[in-house]
Input
Amino acid sequence: MSHKVLVADDSGTMRKIIIRSLNAVNVTDITEAGNGDEAWDCFQQDTFDIVLTDWNMPGKTGLELLKCIREVNKDVPVILITTEAEKSRVLQAIQAGVSDYLVKPFEADALRAKLGKLVGVAT
Amino acid sequence: MSQKYTPVNVEYINPFLTSTLSVFRTMLNTEIERGQLYLKGHHKPDHEVSGIIGMSGKAVGTVVLSLSKEVALGAAEAMLGEKHDEINADVVDVVGELTNMIAGSAKAKLEQFAMSISLPNVVLGKNHTVAFPTGVTPFGIPFTTKWGEVCIDVGLCEKMASTEAGAAETPEEVSV
Output
């Protein structure tokens, strides 16, 4: 099964690293967004199987994007990839309906393993 | 009551040291060696490339990742897996993201200050100056990497409930 993934991060570097990891688990149908507003526009205009988003971005933050998504879609996996590691922040994300959480900095293997699990590919 | 500020204790600088070691090890796959922490007598970063992030909450201030061009290019190659010969938008983005990770990781270890971080800015050019909060002398944490020298400048002040001698009325806007 092919997966369609939305990647939202204002850093082109982070988008490249995430896309490299997605490619490693055979995911190539990827839409990139450089800020939260752009990501929300993409989400409204298309159907995605997975959303990977940063927290601190111009426009909508990743948390705001997550809340918008959850108003219209309770099921799509949304993973926050962020430096926001405080318990209070993680709790906010859980309350908003985040599916999983990856704290920056991270080992490439950790991201690949998480993505592989999501798309059903052994890494 | 007006808000007062006082420089944070040196013990709060340690999270920036450990987060820098961790970010270079994890994201750039390289071990770096720390030098001696010191108080900077000026607000000029040591090198020509600066990643700058403002922090605000119960403490406010600025964090600077200062790199030479050689270190910035080496870090970009390690992070992106592609070689760049000059400082360009991709290299600038790498410096911004490294600064974001260092400040963000340190912030998570300073939860008592309930801080938020700004989006990173990157400034290029020799002898530029970074403004820190009034009355704050930044700490410099030098590191040696395989590409050259790096320095993290941290200038933070803590909000005080009441007036204390030497505490500033308000911090200056963080600007570059």
About this structure: Chain B has a mean pLDDT of 88. The CA atoms of residues 18 and 106 of chain B lie 8 Å apart. The interface with chain A takes residues 22-23, 26-27, 79-81, 89-90, 93-94, 96-97, 100-101, 103-105, 107-108, 111, 114, 117, 119 of chain B (CB under 8 Å). Chain B has three helices and nine strands.
